[in-house]
Every structure is written in structure tokens, then in C-alpha cells.
Amino acid sequence: MSDAAASRARTSQQKVAATLRRRYHAERRFRAYGIVAVAIGLTFVAFLFYTIIAKGYTAFAQTYVALDISYRAEEIDPAGSRARAVLEGADYQALIKAALREHFPEVTERAELRKLYGLVSSAAEVTLRDRVLADPGRIGQQERVWLLAKDQVDLLVKGQVDRALPEAQRNIDDQTIGWIDRLRAEGRVEKRFNTGFFMNGDSREPEQAGVAGAVAGSFFTLVITLVLSFPIGVAAAVYLEEFAPKNRLTDFIEVNINNLAAVPSIVFGLLGLAMFIQFFGLPRSAPLVGGLVLTLMTLPTIIITSRAALKAVPPSIREAALGMGASAVQTVIHHVAPMALPGMLTGAIIGMARALGESAPLLMIGMVAFIVDIPKGITGAATVLPVQVYLWASSPERAFVERTSAAIMVLLAFLLVMNAAAVLLRSRFERRW
């Protein structure tokens, strides 16, 4: 080889090496960009979870105040009949006020007494009523009873009130703080697990508010959605994928299904308001209507994912079944559908998870109403967890802040469970070939 040829070969090798170095550098930069993007995303998610948990975990504890209650017969049952109707209608609030006055005898002014009575929640009289109904023998006796404290007391005990602020900038004055400190020094204040948050419905009083009504409403709504959307969605997917002729009509249907999957959820709420409530006359704010609306919203997602699962089944499965003499229906039912089941279930659960987190369509059908009672069925007035979060977030009381975050934690727990179920079902039923 001549010197010129060798020189050209070396030059070519140098160019190739330089090109490879640039490619390797570009690949490393691309990987670095991906790692940075993932890190930023995880940082935002971690910050979101930290903010929610930091604000909401305190809602799982509630402050109680111990008072020495005298069950005076003249207040509860003057006639001594011990009739249940008389015991239920007694003025138990008077017993609480008397106990507070006895413990703080120096408080005599009317304005100060009103503040003193505000240390205890209005739910305390229900506690006393239930104790008397459970054992009428308490009448005429005295006992120490732990009663639910007011939300301002709860915030102070949890350290969410800055004592260093001037009194005018706090929602609790120095005199009330002094009363609470005195009760704490006497061992009459303690925090307990907040069972009421999981067992009570909504309330105007933050210390009494719970998510039981919203959880029950979400459960009934999702049951209606699952019962309607899964069989209809799967049947539509099977027909379109396996039996429908390929013509303009089916193309038009497929395009509209894909478009419906991207329609804003509030449009489905307007459709449900016009169709189910105004036309069919179904009750407002009912899980039945909410389930029907969410069914319309989740059907496109279930149909699309089910069709994708059917397409993923190898054609050889169909050909083998048909070759053995099976009909088209038998092929789908006994061979294709079982293999596509994991994908169908995954799509259904993902659609249900999306439905669980929706609030806009349910606001349109009246599920934003203030519901105290826990719903007993699909036609009773109810609300759902996302709407409950919306209601509490818009409330002016500061104590609702922690309950808003706690309700979000409950909602996220539901979503995590549903997504974990989707992963487990896929791994359980998935067949590899």
C-alpha cells in the first residue's frame, strides 16, 4: 500500500473514531437528560406526598377533655319515669355547662361563659345521652367523662396555633389558652385516635366531620359503574374486534369511541344532568346517577384497552381453534377472551380508578350537596371522596385544612389499592407465549 493510501485510511479511521465519540457523548447526554427528568418528576411527587401527609396526618388524632359530669335527675328525668323518650329529649348541654362552671368558678361574666362553653364540642351532649340510655342507673351519679373538644382546642393541643403571635392575630385568645393549659396540667386533656373521622358523615363542625358518607357514596357509585361499564365495554370490544365488518359505519364508530375518550369529563356531567335527571327524572345527588355518568365516561377507556388486549392475542390461537372445528363464537369465548382477560381487567380497573378521582361530572348532577347522613343504598343522597375534598378545601374553618389533606390520603389509598389490584390481576392471569 502506498503512503498516500495509508494516509487516507488513517484519516478515515480518525473521522470514524471522532464520529463514534460524538455519538457516545450524545448517548450519555441523552441518558443523563432522562435521569434528570425522572429525578425531577420523583422530586415533585415526593414533595406532593410530603405536603399532603404533613398537613393531614394530624387529623387521625382528636383532642378530648375530661369533665366531672353530675347526672342530675332534675335536668334529665324530673318525674323519674325513666322513659326512653324523656331520656332522649333531656338537656344534656346543661350538664356540660354546669361541669365547666364548677371547674372554673371564677368565670362569671356572660361573654366569658360563652367562651368557656366553647371548649367542648356540641357532639358532647350526644355522648352523655348515649351513656344515659345505655345505663339509666347513672342518673343521680357523678363520673368523669371524656368529651370531644372544640376544633380550636384541638388545633392548640396539636401545636398548630402560634402562641408567639399577638392575640389579635390568633383565632383563640389568651384567656382560652390559659383554661386549656390548666386542664392539660390537671391531666384532663389528651389526644386519641380519631375514629369519628372514619365513622361519621360530613358536618359543619370540623371536629365532628368524617369521610364515612363520602366513602359509602364512592363505593355505591363505583359498584354501579363497574356492573355497567365492564360487561358493556368488553362486549363492544369483542364485537368490534372479532365480528364487526370493516366498513364506513364501523370506522365511524371507532373514530367516535377514540374521540369520546378525550372528551372533558364535565361534558359527561352535563349529559347526565340532561338525560338521567331532567329527562328520566332520577334523583339528584344519588350514586345511581353518578354511576351512570361515570359509566359513560369510562366506557371508551374500557373498549379501547379491551380491543388492544384482543389484538395482542396471537393469530395462531384463532387459527388453531378454527382448524379444530370450533365456531367463531367458541373461538372467542374459549380461547381468545381468556387470554385477553388480564388486559381487559387492567383496563377496567384503570378506568375505575379514573372514575374514582373524578369530581367535575358529579358536581353537575348535584353530588356537591351537603350530606350528613351516610347513604344506605344507590338511590339515597350521597357525595363522593373527590367532592368531599372540594367541599372541605373551600371551607373557611382552619381545622378543615387537615381534614382535607386526610381525605386526600384516603382517596390516594383507594387509588393505590386499585392500581395494585390491576398489577396483581395482570400477573396472575397473564399467559406468555
Could you please describe the fold and organization of this structure?
- This protein is mostly helical and 433 residues long.
- It is built from 18 helices and 3 strands.
- A 3-stranded antiparallel sheet has the order 2-1-3.
Number of helices: 18
Integer tally of domains: 3
Structural class: mainly alpha
How far apart are the first and last residues' alpha carbons, in Å?
A: 55 Å
- The overall pLDDT average reads 87
CATH topology of the largest domain: MetI-like fold
What characteristic shape results from the CA principal axes? Answer: flat
**What name goes with the CATH superfamily of the largest domain?**
MetI-like
Number of strands: 3
Strand percentage: 5-15%
